[in-house]
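Incident log, support desk, overnight shift.

02:14 A customer reports that sequence design results differ from what the structure should imply. Their input is reproduced verbatim below. On-call engineer (initials T.W.) acknowledged and began investigating.
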């Protein structure tokens, strides 16, 4: 696997660019992504699946920057979207609508109409009511809508409860025990074409056993549906593969994982789809930040930085761990145990807690690692903080792919009476 972020001597690099140079020029906080790493992860999926009919649908929600969408489109990716806004984005990035699949538990009529107009590949439907609505809207548009039913296979993905989705008690999909009846009833719908089945059991999965279990359940379902004369042509397995956040974590290798799965699909006359997000962009990005102040209380050491929960909310929201390293390694720094905190007025505004970290003075630069997925995507303007810029590196070149927001951006759309 291509490692984009590495020390060269004392300096932390992204590909062939010293990250300190980017921080000095683009300012901090700032997201930096490696184009080579993103393409490496995408190709790991695409090449390992080469033997069977397949589609890699990048999950746009993980990182929706237009330049990243374009990069992946040019490499042959399709897209998994969850809103009209994401459909608009992928179209702006030049994606072929025939390679777009629309997931999500609460699609509105307006979003469905938009997707029908654009001519997307298919809808992953999450309820019978949604199937009925799609049928009615397709009839009105004079179209036939291709749909898959998202199945809830009742498998425990063994991940953080907020990002588990495949258990019966979760809001997602249609219960595996009800799905055959739903398909049978849905055959009566004249403007809906039942094409596939889909599932997605959760995110940041470090153990692949639950995915294998879900795949086996889904393949048995495909056989049963085909037995009832429903011509299932594709199986969408969702996303979910985990990445390394903690140094001791051993996430599945994409190539190994897909190679293992592949055996189950050979000779089945089934197009396999996957919707990876995090495993494509997660470890291809970092968040750069500068130390503003140091302070200590009786019991704690604090490193106050210029990035906050508004830039990267994962530590605050999930207690997520992101490694934090200095952009310039100096032996004289030594190490301390500290909280790395941002400027926002919330106790939850931290990037790390009780972390063994380089004892960096104010003015030094840090990289918050593995921040390429659900980083900028979840950023907000809370405390009226402009959102940070995003930079894409390729070899020794880099460019800003989203400029830093300005104060004017903050009030756009507001009106004073
Ligand atoms: N497909 C569906 C239907 C999904 O719901 C998701 C993620 C994906 C694909 C992509 O999953 P991935 O390959 O990225 O695991 N904000 C959380 C993650 C939320 C994931 C939501 N669904 C985080 O920062 O960990």
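02:41 Re-run completed on a clean worker. Output:
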């Amino acid at each position: 696997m291509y490692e984009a972020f590495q020390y060269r001597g004392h300096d932390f690099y992204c590909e062939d660019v010293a990250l300190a140079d980017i921080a000095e020029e683009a300012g901090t906080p700032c997201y930096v992504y490696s184009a080579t790493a993103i393409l490496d992860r995408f190709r790991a999926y695409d090449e390992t699946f080469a033997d069977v009919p397949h589609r890699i649908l990048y999950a746009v929600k993980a990182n929706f920057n237009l330049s990243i969408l374009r990069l992946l489109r040019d490499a042959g990716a399709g897209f998994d979207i969850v809103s009209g806004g994401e459909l608009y984005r992928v179209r702006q990035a030049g994606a072929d609508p025939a390679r777009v699949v629309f997931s999500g538990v609460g699609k509105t009529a307006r979003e469905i109409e938009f997707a029908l107009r654009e001519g997307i590949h298919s809808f992953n439907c999450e309820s019978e009511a949604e199937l009925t609505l799609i049928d009615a809207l397709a009839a009105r548009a004079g179209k036939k809508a291709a749909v898959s039913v998202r199945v809830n296979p009742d498998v425990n993905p063994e991940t953080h409860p907020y990002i588990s989705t495949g258990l019966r008690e979760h809001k997602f999909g249609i219960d595996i025990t009800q799905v055959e009846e739903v398909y049978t009833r849905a055959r009566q719908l004249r403007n809906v074409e039942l094409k596939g089945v889909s599932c997605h059991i959760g995110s940041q999965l470090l153990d692949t056993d639950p995915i294998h279990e879900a795949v086996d359940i889904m393949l048995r379902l495909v056989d049963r549906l085909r037995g009832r004369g429903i011509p299932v042509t594709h199986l969408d397995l969702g996303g979910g593969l985990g990445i390394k956040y903690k140094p001791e974590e051993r996430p599945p290798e994409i190539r190994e994982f897909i190679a293992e799965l592949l055996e189950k699909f050979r000779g089945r006359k089934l197009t396999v789809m996957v919707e990876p997000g995090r495993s494509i962009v997660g470890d291809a990005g970092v968040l750069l930040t500068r130390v503003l102040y140091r302070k200590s209380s009786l019991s704690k050491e604090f490193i106050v930085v210029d990035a906050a929960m508004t830039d990267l909310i994962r530590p605050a929201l999930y207690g997520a761990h992101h490694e934090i390293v200095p952009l310039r390694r100096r032996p004289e720094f030594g190490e301390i145990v500290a909280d790395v905190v941002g400027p926002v007025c919330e106790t939850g505004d931290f990037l790390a807690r009780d972390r063994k970290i380089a004892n960096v003075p104010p003015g030094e630069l840090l990289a918050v690692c593995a921040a390429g997925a659900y980083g900028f995507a979840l950023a907000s303007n809370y405390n009226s903080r402009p959102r940070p810029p995003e930079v894409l590196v390729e070899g020794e070149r880099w460019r800003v792919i989203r400029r830093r927001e300005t104060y004017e951006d903050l009030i756009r759309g507001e009106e004073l009476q």
